[in-house]
Amino acid sequence: MGIVDRSEPMKATASQGRPIVRMRGVRKAFGPRVILEGLDLDVGAGEKVALIGPSGSGKTTILRLLIGLTEPDAGTIEIDGQYLWHSSRGGTLERADEAHARQVRRCVGMVFQQFNLFPHMTALQNVHEPMEQVLRLKRPEAKERARALLARVGLGEHVDKRPSQLSGGQQQRVAIARSLGLQPKLMLFDEVTSALDPELVGEVLGVLRELAHETDMTMLIVTHEIRFAADIADRVLVFDAGRVVEDGSPEIVLKDPSHPRTRQFLRAILER
Amino acid sequence: MAGESTFVYLPYLMGGVVTTLQITALAMLLALPVSFLLALGRMSSFAPARWGAGFVIELFRGTSAVVQLFWAFYVLPFFGVELSPLAAGVLVLGLNEGSYFSEVVRASLKSIVAGQREAAVALHLPRFYTFRRIVLPQALPIMVPPFGNAAVLMLKFTALTSLVTIQELSFRAGLLRSNLGVSSDIYGVVLAIYFALAVGMASLVWLAERAVNRWAGREVIPWRELTSRRASPAPKWAFRR
Amino acid sequence: MRGALWDWAYAWSVMPDLMRGFALTVQLTLISAALALSLGFVWSVVRLAGVPLLSPLAWFAAEFFRGTPFLIQLYVVFYVLPNYGIAFSPDATGVLVLGVYGAARSVELYRAGLESLPQGQWEACLALNLPLSYVWRRAVIPQVAPVVLPMLGNLVIVMFKDSAVLSTITVLELVSRARDAGLASFRFLEPLTLAGLLYWAVSYAAARGVRRLEARGGHR
Ligand SMILES: Nc1ncnc2c1ncn2[C@@H]1O[C@H](COP(=O)(O)OP(=O)(O)O)[C@@H](O)[C@H]1O
Ligand SMILES: [Mg+2]
């Protein structure tokens, strides 16, 4: 992996308020390739955290772990005070089953790089059907709320279109509305603008910016848009080779990084 | 070519065509649910279901259809299972095709890309809803063309049921030849009838595909593309010398 | 009915006959397969080369053989052609028809294989002005062969199982032997089950081989 700082990795655990995410000693490997090792990460309720780092460093893996798409090999993950894959009985941790994890991760939402909208459903159906299924809302109410959400992301006129009839930016906004519909406490955004044509990036970042400023939802945002991150994040984590190498306010991390490698990385993405 | 007698017996032969089409339809009607059951069995997380489905699939795909037909016709009665030839024929053809088609069903269900399943998990959608509303509507249109092909194959396949005395097209031709002294040229006529039936059925399948694609909101195959199957996938210059 | 369902002594007594039939089945399949693969290759080239008249003809002939029952094709060659002075022995009829039928089916496989090659590959070759022989040898065949070879392998397995239909034109292969043994003693269970097992054993082993071929092709 080239020149990697051999000093102790920084512990990204100092954060204000009640933590909504608490990862301790998390390890994840795919076959012989260790992606994450001994990762500790806290995110406080309501924090807007930007997660940046070179491609392949394990950012997506962290988000997938948080929403339970993958299980850690070791370590614990707590979401809003509950263990995701464990239950604690009288002080000792026991492995819990899939059903337990399903219930704990209910309050987490995720938006994917490739949108992953359901192509055979209209924008409205994409949003209101999950609300019926998960929140057990009656159809008329779910539809009404879904319309309001779509209007809020600027798609009021496109509710009856299928994903294939929408631009990439519009699709990604539907995907954001779809996740918001389930009223998550923690939202994970995985490079939500990376698959978009440059002229469509702005409209999606606009929605994120509005969410960041106007809600108290916790947001964990993986992005390569440094200026955007500096603008909306309370805290920036720089991630490299499976560990957190920088953690702090955007001003400090982005303007005056402590590691030469971070400087290099920031320069590389700013020059794009 | 085929003598005058062929035409005298044409109505009799046409009765056989009706039976041929009946067996085709019944066997496909059986093959459809069988293929779904076997595919879901193979994909199940319950090991005995996987083994059971795997056994049935091996049984019908690993051995010859002729053996299966004879087995149903000659051996099942020995176990006290008395099936009419028609029932035995439909059962064997349906299970046989169902075993092959289960592979298509499985591949179609699996082809719903990981992203779709992951989105369903990330949205905390219930498993049955995910199958019914996300996976199935996307997988079904993928299965329609191969199902149509399988139906055309089944049409040819039914000729084998003449071996177990079902009075379909081939059997009646054989009967005319051996018992009524009609010239064996009649098999030429039968061959032409099968080809005409296959062409007709392939056209129907194509129409059905169009309808399903319309319904699923997918792009409708233009007539051009159907005929382009006749064209070479390699450019002209690739064979120039 | 003395003895349980399965009579080992009887099963044992029909084995030699079955094995003789099995040997013939394997033999006929191998000869037909050789015919199918060689004829099929030439047929495919003609079909795909875009020659006026000849290519559409090759296309239609392949569709005709693929669109009609193998059983009836056998009957036509076995019963009809002799009326016009063309007669073959049962075994020769079987090999010929099975081989041509297999060849016709292989035409579709070559087409599908070639179709799996992205058009961009052809365009790149053209843009680079590569010589035609190089294009086929180094660009097309290495990419298409891993797709086509497993399909051809599966075709041979299908032909092996289809060869059972030759029993209808008095070829003494595995199924006729099994049926004749059954008819002679009015016990079909043992011979037909053993015949089924023999088919299964060979096609299972062959299918595993094809799957290995497929896996290797996938990694390339
Ligand atoms: N399911 C998987 N199987 C094998 N390797 C994987 C899998 N998912 C991710 N990886 C590997 O883990 C590493 C980190 O991936 P990822 O978390 O997607 O990085 P990032 O999002 O930072 O680009 C990559 O090298 C990737 O190849
Ligand atoms: Mg990623």
From TrEMBL, chain B:
<feature type="transmembrane region" description="Helical">
    <location>
        <begin position="186"/>
        <end position="208"/>
    </location>
</feature>
<comment type="similarity">
    <text>Belongs to the binding-protein-dependent transport system permease family. HisMQ subfamily.</text>
</comment>
<keyword id="KW-1133">Transmembrane helix</keyword>
<dbReference type="InterPro" id="IPR043429">
    <property type="entry name" value="ArtM/GltK/GlnP/TcyL/YhdX-like"/>
</dbReference>
<keyword id="KW-0812">Transmembrane</keyword>
<dbReference type="InterPro" id="IPR000515">
    <property type="entry name" value="MetI-like"/>
</dbReference>
<protein>
    <submittedName>
        <fullName>Ectoine/hydroxyectoine ABC transporter permease subunit EhuC</fullName>
    </submittedName>
</protein>
<dbReference type="Pfam" id="PF00528">
    <property type="entry name" value="BPD_transp_1"/>
</dbReference>
<keyword id="KW-0029">Amino-acid transport</keyword>
<feature type="transmembrane region" description="Helical">
    <location>
        <begin position="77"/>
        <end position="96"/>
    </location>
</feature>
<feature type="domain" description="ABC transmembrane type-1">
    <location>
        <begin position="17"/>
        <end position="208"/>
    </location>
</feature>
<keyword id="KW-0813">Transport</keyword>
<keyword id="KW-1003">Cell membrane</keyword>
<keyword id="KW-0472">Membrane</keyword>
<dbReference type="InterPro" id="IPR010065">
    <property type="entry name" value="AA_ABC_transptr_permease_3TM"/>
</dbReference>
<dbReference type="InterPro" id="IPR035906">
    <property type="entry name" value="MetI-like_sf"/>
</dbReference>
<dbReference type="InterPro" id="IPR014342">
    <property type="entry name" value="Ectoine_EhuC"/>
</dbReference>
<feature type="transmembrane region" description="Helical">
    <location>
        <begin position="12"/>
        <end position="39"/>
    </location>
</feature>
TrEMBL record, chain C:
<feature type="transmembrane region" description="Helical">
    <location>
        <begin position="192"/>
        <end position="210"/>
    </location>
</feature>
<keyword id="KW-1133">Transmembrane helix</keyword>
<dbReference type="InterPro" id="IPR014341">
    <property type="entry name" value="Ectoine_EhuD"/>
</dbReference>
<comment type="similarity">
    <text>Belongs to the binding-protein-dependent transport system permease family. HisMQ subfamily.</text>
</comment>
<keyword id="KW-0812">Transmembrane</keyword>
<dbReference type="InterPro" id="IPR043429">
    <property type="entry name" value="ArtM/GltK/GlnP/TcyL/YhdX-like"/>
</dbReference>
<keyword id="KW-1003">Cell membrane</keyword>
<dbReference type="InterPro" id="IPR000515">
    <property type="entry name" value="MetI-like"/>
</dbReference>
<protein>
    <submittedName>
        <fullName>Ectoine/hydroxyectoine ABC transporter permease subunit EhuD</fullName>
    </submittedName>
</protein>
<keyword id="KW-0029">Amino-acid transport</keyword>
<dbReference type="InterPro" id="IPR035906">
    <property type="entry name" value="MetI-like_sf"/>
</dbReference>
<keyword id="KW-0472">Membrane</keyword>
<dbReference type="InterPro" id="IPR010065">
    <property type="entry name" value="AA_ABC_transptr_permease_3TM"/>
</dbReference>
<feature type="transmembrane region" description="Helical">
    <location>
        <begin position="147"/>
        <end position="172"/>
    </location>
</feature>
<feature type="domain" description="ABC transmembrane type-1">
    <location>
        <begin position="22"/>
        <end position="210"/>
    </location>
</feature>
<feature type="transmembrane region" description="Helical">
    <location>
        <begin position="21"/>
        <end position="46"/>
    </location>
</feature>
<feature type="transmembrane region" description="Helical">
    <location>
        <begin position="58"/>
        <end position="81"/>
    </location>
</feature>
<dbReference type="Pfam" id="PF00528">
    <property type="entry name" value="BPD_transp_1"/>
</dbReference>
<keyword id="KW-0813">Transport</keyword>
